[in-house]
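ok, trying the design again with the full structure, not the truncated one.
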């Protein structure tokens, strides 16, 4: 029985971490949208691709956050175990891909500041 409780805590902790990181992505998106452009010129060496990429990653992250939040709300009502498994696996994979995109965005924008 103790392993079941440990497993439940690990799942809960992973969901908390995922949602905290997704909220962070909304904050990053807000910063890029709010102060990434000055008089329609991107502040990252005047390269609009850096700002567009950051905006795209932020929009995708926000939409995914809403989708996974809705799935989390109805997760207990889904009776099919395979569907539940697919939801969890999709969430983990998408979160990993999104973290890589955020890292790439940060590196791209930092390299453009010079």
């Amino acid at each position: 029985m103790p392993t079941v409780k440990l497993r439940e805590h690990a799942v809960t902790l992973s969901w908390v971490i995922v949602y905290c990181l997704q909220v962070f992505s909304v904050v990053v998106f807000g910063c890029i949208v709010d102060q990434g452009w000055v008089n329609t010129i991107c502040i990252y060496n005047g390269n609009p691709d850096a700002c567009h990429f950051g905006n795209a990653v932020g929009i995708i992250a926000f939409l995914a956050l809403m989708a996974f939040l809705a799935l989390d709300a109805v997760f207990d009502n889904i009776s099919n175990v395979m569907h539940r498994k697919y939801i969890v696996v999709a969430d983990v994979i998408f979160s990993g891909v999104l973290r890589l995109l955020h890292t790439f965005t940060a590196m791209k924008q930092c390299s453009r500041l010079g």
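Keeping the full-length input from now on. The chain has a mean pLDDT of 77.
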